[in-house]
Amino acid sequence: MRAAARPGPPAPGAAGPLTRRRAARRRGPSYFVREGVAGFWRSGLMSVAAVTITMVTLVALGVALVVAGVLDQLTRSVERRAEVVVYLNDGVRAGDLAALRARLLRLSGVTGLTYVSKDEALSDFQQTLGGKVDLGDLLSRNPLPASFRVAVDGPDRLREVADAASTLPHVEHAGYGAETADRLLGLTRAVRLGGAAAGGLLALAAVIIVLNTIRLTVFARRAEIEVMRLVGATAWFIRWPFVVEGALTGAAGALAALGLVAGAYAWLAWGARLSLPFLPLPSPEQVALMLAWKLMVWGVLIGTGGSLLAVRRYLSL
Amino acid sequence: MGPAVAAAVILPGAGPDGQDPAMVEFCRVSKRYPTGVTVLADVTLRIDPEEFVFIVGPTGAGKSTLMKMLYREERPSSGTVLVAGRDVTRLPARDVPFLRRKVGIVFQDFKLLPRKTAWENVAFALEVTGTPPAEADRRVAEVLEVVGLAARADAVPAELSAGEQQRVSIARALVHRPPLLLADEPTGNLDPDTSWEIVQLLSQIHLQGTTVIVTTHDKTIVDILRKRVIALERGAVVRDEVRGRYAGGG
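ok -> structure tokens follow
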């Protein structure tokens, strides 16, 4: 009782028409991708909706990532300076300056200080602008204050030193980088949280829409699925094309979102470089690279998640 | 996993009682639905390799359910169903596809894919089970030859007569070279002449060594062929004759 129906070789006459026939198509990854792509097109407008909502989700996520990234970079550039900057009123006489220097050095926690004159402050600033602009030509008078840069022996002494310094005569304001850094950190955290919340809600909507798109494909292919089951295709062989379709939908949404967010950032960064050249912004290339893989991973996760749910709910094998 | 299971399905050990292994064995099989409907009631029967069996009976007698249990589309509420010595009621879900590659199935409504040609419909069964294309091409050519449709291989189902469509579906059922062929009302949609041709094709396949089980309403065919007939009524076997007729007695 071995396999039956074992006919002889095909009759000579039959070889002609049969050999002209298209060869049986290859299975394997290319089969799943081809069927996945076919499903994507077959779902038409529904696929467009799924790609769009995925894109919107990832734009929200991308914007949050970029803003948080920029804030991060700003925070770090501020934090690096572990010193208190004591800004002076204009027109302090040399004797008062020497007295102030002595009093600052006597404050507990202070390990040293350097004086930055108004002229030096201006030329420093000019340097951060890349030396392209001669501010001396533009300004009738130097708006920058002179300052003492006071080195402190630990970051926990910064506030104490700054508070003490600001009570001294001729001091206009004493501040430290960490103050700004703290505020930036808070802002970064808020952006991250907001991004995660908005992204999470949108991702949920995206997953549901992908799920419904895949359900349409399952419905459109129900005859084929039935035959596949009956001739002994394995469950995963039947499922894969749907998972591929979902992943493709997610990837398409990710590409669209990447284009939008990276493009918008490049445009804004270009503008900022002209008007606020001292801002330490990450380069558009850096941002695009960071976004590319994060958005792609999330897009594919959303798409695959939606299709796996659809396959579980609507494809009973 | 695949090859091991397939081998177990084709090459069973001897039955527990030392007899030659049966191709199909139903052992006190019942099927009841929670609604209280009983489809099969305590069915016990044995079909040996290379038999040709008609299962007859009125609509709702349980013929289709019986067939579905053989390819694990249905499971009994109680009892065991052995196919080639293997208890398919306990087959893990992941092994069911490998059972189905060893059981060819033919339906009343053909279940052909309308956009695919005859060739592609048959090749599809191999394509989705991972047969290498060259091997698949060879086998499709072979089975289309067996069912006499080599010349119509490029036609889509809409261009084929009902009889030709049923031949394509038989070719698809044979393309995995199953030792067991199930045909559930294969002539239900066909005129008498075409029905007769299809039944003759099934007999030919049987003569090549395949076990064939056919459910039918067609009295004429059953009475002419005089093969084994199992009659079901209200889910129970009421008659089992080696050279039977559609109706009992005569």
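Chain A has two domains: 20-78+182-312, 83-176.
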